[in-house]
Amino acid sequence: MLDKVAGYTIALQKMLEIMNKKGIETIDGEKVRIEDDFVFYFDEMLRADNMFGKGSLFEDTFPTDYPKGSTNTVVILSRYYRWDRRSTLERVYRVKEKDEDRAAKLAFVARFGEYGLRDEDLTWVTVVDPSMRLGS
């Protein structure tokens, strides 16, 4: 049994561009230098905009390497997060993107479009073991 997340990826570089355009370059007066700090602050920014939680656009954020084992860091804006009894690291049962998922994506793009976010910057994915607890 594995945890599985489905949602939209946003590349770390795009996330940093949005934050810089919003004027977010420091956390508690310290210059942000490591990606974990950016991911944390991006997550907090979205929570402040009420984009997470019950009745919100997304359930949570998951920073991960995608595809697994690569050095391509992305943040998954999750629409679905569950335990999956059928998927394995080698065989993933994909979660199909639904109309309500696309509507959440469009709302997210509308909110951050003025900072350069475009529809094509967000890609629907299904990822098992997003926290990489089981290795690659």
Automatic annotation (TrEMBL):
Name of the protein: Uncharacterized protein
Annotated source species: Hebeloma cylindrosporum
